[in-house]
Design goal:
mainly alpha
Length: about 450
């Protein structure tokens, strides 16, 4: 694709002295140079963070693991359901990202991914344990593929000057979705049961996603020449994307670090922290809801505050601070289980919540800072794939340690702590970046 024009005087193509395709690209480049996202577009983008967080807490983190625990389903069963979904996402994520780069648009891929999450959720807990695990796995595929496209829309709703704040806004608004999910569960669970609750969550997911479909404006991008990437080339494309990422300073090392810390974080918020506090700390269902409510409030504050600090001191420092907070929180919850100090678990709720909001606000802003603009879709597909692959390993290790080896869940929690420490050490070698990659430049 020819480089986007960024000079002050339009080239010959703008005056019709070259064939129409070049003039079209020039026209796109000229419009991109003047691009400013509207407030409506930013708000509509953040609405999707709210929508998918309703699913993330209402299904993945709380009520589906709770439903499984009530039926004495082993930890490994949930781990297998998660891992099966993540393997599919590992294959499809980069492919969809590359196709969106080729087409020049993201939203046509966001709508079907969202529906792939919404429809199976409508039937959860209504088809038995095995059927519900299968439906949950399918819904996770749609949820995670939607996140790939959603994250790649960040340059469309922000500028270099405010990208950290917009990212933090998305995280903070998104956690309102957790309150919505929690309130929905409190109001409906005793009345309609888990199956009725999951139907309500599915409807809410779709309802809050609709503004994103309708009102987010994408930057004008020319369609790349040639046929779109084929699915069969996805794995080859993944390897090629990794090679291209290694050529960009800091990107590959950041992704390795992300693999390690996301392994721990995604495992916890994927439902295993709910299982841990119920089984190891003897929390009641209401205590779990209160704990998660505190975590949500802390996450909202963490995301909003961290977004501002990203713009002031850089995503690198904010992300490091978030990981230090995670480490302290996990040490506290392990101590709570070992020494029967249940009150320490509330520290994880506050510290982990704040760290979660700060991690995602700084994490994707750091990725944006390191990524060349022409590779946003491709590299965000790789970024998501790394996180999802980590989500395969974490639950698998947890399930093997607890269900197969018969070790206490504190050991599994210690394994997650080790991943966080290793991730922080790897990130120490990623260079600081204060200037975000321009979404209207190219490589």
């Amino acid at each position: 694709m020819p480089p986007a024009y960024s000079g002050s005087v339009p080239p010959a193509a703008c005056f019709g002295r070259v064939p129409p395709p070049a003039a079209y690209i020039c026209g796109v480049a000229a419009r991109v140079d003047l691009w400013r996202p509207t407030r409506l577009s930013v708000a509509a983008w953040a609405s999707y963070d709210l929508a998918n967080t309703i699913f993330a807490l209402g299904v993945s983190a709380l009520y589906f693991p709770q439903w499984l625990t009530e039926r004495n389903v082993p930890d490994l069963a949930l781990a297998v359901a998660i891992d099966a979904a993540m393997v599919v996402v590992i294959v499809l994520g980069p492919w969809i990202g590359a196709r969106s780069d080729h087409r020049g648009r993201r939203k046509p891929y966001l709508v079907p991914a969202t529906m792939l999450a919404v429809v199976p959720t409508l039937f959860l807990a209504g088809v038995g344990v095995v059927g519900s695990l299968v439906l949950f796995s399918v819904a996770l595929i749609g949820f995670n593929l939607g996140a790939v496209i959603y994250d790649a829309l960040l340059p469309d709703v922000s500028t270099e000057a405010n990208r950290g704040r917009v990212s933090g806004l998305g995280v903070a608004v998104g956690y309102l979705g957790s309150f919505v999910a929690l309130a929905t569960g409190i109001l409906l669970l005793d009345r309609v049961g888990h199956d009725g609750l999951f139907r309500a969550i599915a409807v809410l997911f779709l309802l809050f996603a609709l503004p994103t479909f309708a009102f987010v404006r994408e930057r004008p991008r020319p369609r790349m020449p040639g046929p779109p990437p084929a699915l069969r080339s996805s794995l080859r494309g993944l390897a090629a994307s990794w090679r291209r990422a290694r050529a960009v300073p800091g990107v590959a090392r950041f992704l390795v670090g992300r693999f390690l810390y996301a392994d721990a974080i995604n495992t916890l918020i994927g439902g295993f922290i709910t299982i841990f506090v119920i089984e190891e700390l003897d929390f009641s269902d209401r205590e779990v809801e209160v704990l998660l409510g505190l975590s949500i409030a802390a996450a909202m504050a963490g995301g909003a505050v961290a977004g501002r600090f990203v713009d002031r001191v850089g995503a690198r420092r904010v992300l490091h601070a978030a990981l230090h907070t995670w480490i302290a929180g996990i040490v506290a919850v392990v101590a709570a289980a070992v020494f029967d100090l249940r009150s320490l678990a509330w520290l994880l709720g506050l510290a982990g919540g704040a760290a979660l909001g700060a991690t995602w606000a700084s994490d994707r802003a750091y990725m944006a800072a390191l990524t060349p603009a022409a590779r946003f879709g491709e590299f965000y597909g790789l970024y998501a794939t790394v996180g999802r692959f980590a989500t395969v390993l974490g639950p698998l290790i947890w399930g093997l340690l607890v269900t197969v080896a018969g070790l206490p869940r504190t050991v599994a929690m210690g394994a997650l702590l080790a991943f966080l420490v290793a991730g922080r050490l790897v990130l120490a070698g990623v260079p600081p970046v204060r200037t975000y990659a321009s979404a209207d430049s190219s490589v």
